[in-house]
Design goal:
It is built from 2 helices and 12 strands. By secondary structure, it is an alpha+beta fold. The strands form 3 sheets. It has a 6-stranded antiparallel β-sheet with strand order 6-8-2-1-11-12, with no helix packed on it. The protein starts with a helix and ends with a strand.
């Protein structure tokens, strides 16, 4: 009987590992498929934000909008600053046609993640058709709107192509001088 025990242990150990790997894989797939639902499993974190600067870089018919702010959460685990928790809402000059702005990612851009409950400065990047800068812009953080641009009539033609400029907020006026090249 003692000679048959090691093969039984190998089979039991293999079966246990398969079950655990399957459970972890299923949990990971569900979190990837539905990140909002996965964040609910972690509990409710309150997220606070203070916008520090808004920059825009025109690239032909589009604009890269960068919103930099101080963020703080009450939770202790890493928190991704992405929809539905954080999103950019773009509206037409009359306030109609509200839709979310498209997030901009790049190989050299840091992911918008809060590591823990400490305050952190995070840059959020969005990619918009340049005509949408003529409308209203709001950053929605944990359901609370922060007005980035509350006045229509932005002169898109005054944006230099390929150069990053700062925008005052919430009136959306171009600040003098480039912020970077």
């Amino acid at each position: 009987m003692a000679a048959e025990s090691p093969p039984f242990r190998k089979i039991l150990l293999t079966a246990t590992l398969v079950v655990v790997a399957t459970a972890i894989g299923r949990l990971g797939y569900e979190a990837w498929k539905n990140p909002a639902g996965f964040q609910q499993w972690r509990g409710t974190e309150t997220l606070q934000a203070q916008v520090m600067r808004v920059e825009v870089r025109r690239v032909e018919g589009h604009a890269q909008l960068t919103v930099t702010g101080n963020f703080r959460q009450e939770g202790s685990s890493p928190l991704r600053l992405e929809p539905p928790l954080v999103s950019l809402l773009v509206a037409g000059p009359d306030g109609g046609g509200v839709h979310p702005g498209e997030r901009f990612t790049g190989a050299f851009l840091a992911e918008p993640v809060l590591p823990d409950a400490t305050a952190a400065t995070v840059a959020l990047h969005y990619w918009l058709p340049v005509a949408e800068l003529g409308g209203l812009l709001s950053l929605i953080v944990d359901g609370v709107p922060i007005q980035l641009k509350n006045e229509p009539g932005f002169s898109v033609d005054s944006l230099p192509n390929g150069q990053t400029v700062g925008l005052s907020f919430p009136d959306g006026k171009i600040l003098p001088g480039p912020t970077s090249s």
